[in-house]
Design goal:
Blueprint (H helix, E strand, L loop, with lengths): L8 H8 L3 H7 L8 H14 L5 H8 L4 E7 L5 H15 L3 E7 L5 H12 L5 E5 L5 H9 L4 E4 L9 E5 L1 H14 L5 E5 L5 H16 L6 E4 L4 H12 L7 E4 L2 H13 L10 E6 L12 E4 L2 H16 L8 E4 L2 E3 L5
Parallel strand pairs: 1-2, 1-3, 3-4, 4-5, 5-11, 6-7, 6-8, 8-9, 9-10
Antiparallel strand pairs: 10-12
């Protein structure tokens, strides 16, 4: 069996009539090289069948140019959008994403074990989307020089950056929208009870209701899952004394609530029940739902995350960041 000949960097340089360092810069993301030189190198590389060795470059530069991304609740339509935007933004900086999926129900020890697996790939940074980590692992990442950014979570850990939305303001907006729609028996369907997003959204809702002289009429938990939200809707709306409005902690659950109200309980939206969600996922704009929701600025959150990562990876003088992006109300036909 014949072996495939490995083309060397020197052979490309010789054919292109440039230095080996020019060839190296051409295939190094972010490196400066003249357009004419780049074209000569690329032509020579194509002719010879040269392919740069990313593993060898990692050994030389001590950089993998890989960012580990750990995400849970991938069934939540918000996160596929985030992953796409994050991958594209990192690629523009010459980085690639190594994606790990968590089921969202691990213990702290399980999450630590999973993140240790990620670290074995010599990632240059970590983004944890809807996943938390222990203070011990955070300290371990810091000691290894691996920056960590929590996405859509805020946990006060030393050396860990966080990018999130103004969830409290979003909860207040949801309450105000329901009040303006004439609702007085307002319910809330929560996500996972220990998630910072869930806690803050409920805080904002209750604070605005209290200012208006109202109290929360009813509450149930949907655990950020479709089936959980369906069960919560049955619990809240199955009796005669039902709420006339409901704030659901994210759109994924809000769509489930709307399905249950209409198909099982024969309730009209918004005539019988007003519904508002949180995220503004693409599906919320579908005519079948037309869901009023609180929009998270996914693009702004991703841009902030990448900026923090790049500064951290390049060892810029960067103190721990806690970035909170504003939210806004998107009015549609569900209230």
């Amino acid at each position: 069996m014949s072996q495939i000949k490995t083309v060397t960097l020197s052979e490309v340089a010789q054919l292109a009539q440039v230095s080996t360092s020019a060839v190296s810069r051409t295939f190094t993301p972010g490196a400066s090289v003249a357009p004419a030189t780049r074209e000569k190198v690329m032509q020579a590389a194509r002719k010879l069948g040269y392919r740069p060795n990313a593993i060898a470059r990692t050994l030389t530069t001590k950089r993998s140019r890989i960012i580990g991304v750990v995400v849970s609740y991938l069934q939540n339509q918000f996160y596929p959008v985030v992953i796409e935007k994050l991958s594209q933004a990192l690629q523009r900086h010459g980085y690639h994403v190594l994606l790990f999926i968590s089921d969202g129900h691990e213990t702290g020890a399980d999450v630590d074990d999973q993140l240790m697996d990620v670290m074995q790939y010599q990632v240059d940074g970590l983004v944890l989307a809807s996943v938390t980590l222990s203070s011990a692992l955070a300290q371990g990442c810091q000691a290894a020089g691996v920056p960590v950014v929590l996405f859509n979570r805020v946990v006060p850990l030393e050396g860990v950056h966080a990018v999130a939305s103004d969830n409290v303001a979003g909860g207040r907006m949801a309450a105000q929208a329901l009040i303006e729609a004439g609702c007085r028996k307002i319910a809330y369907i929560a996500g996972l009870e220990d998630a910072s997003t869930q806690i803050e959204r409920e805080q904002g809702l209750i604070a605005r209701l209290q200012e208006a002289g109202l109290s929360l009429f009813a509450r149930a938990s949907g655990d950020y899952s479709y089936q959980g939200a369906c069960n919560a809707a049955r619990t809240l709306f199955g009796g005669k004394n039902r709420p006339d409005g409901v704030f659901v902690a994210n759109d994924h659950m809000a769509l489930a609530v709307m399905d249950t109200l209409r198909s099982e309980l024969n309730l009209r939206i918004p005539e019988d029940v007003a519904v508002i969600g949180f995220d503004n996922v693409p599906q919320s704009a579908w005519p079948a739902y037309a869901l009023t929701t609180i929009e998270q600025d996914a693009t702004g959150m991703v841009d902030a995350t990448v900026e923090v990562l790049m500064k951290s990876v390049n060892q810029s003088d960067l103190s721990v960041c806690r970035i909170v992006k504003p939210v806004r109300l998107i009015r549609r036909g569900s209230i």
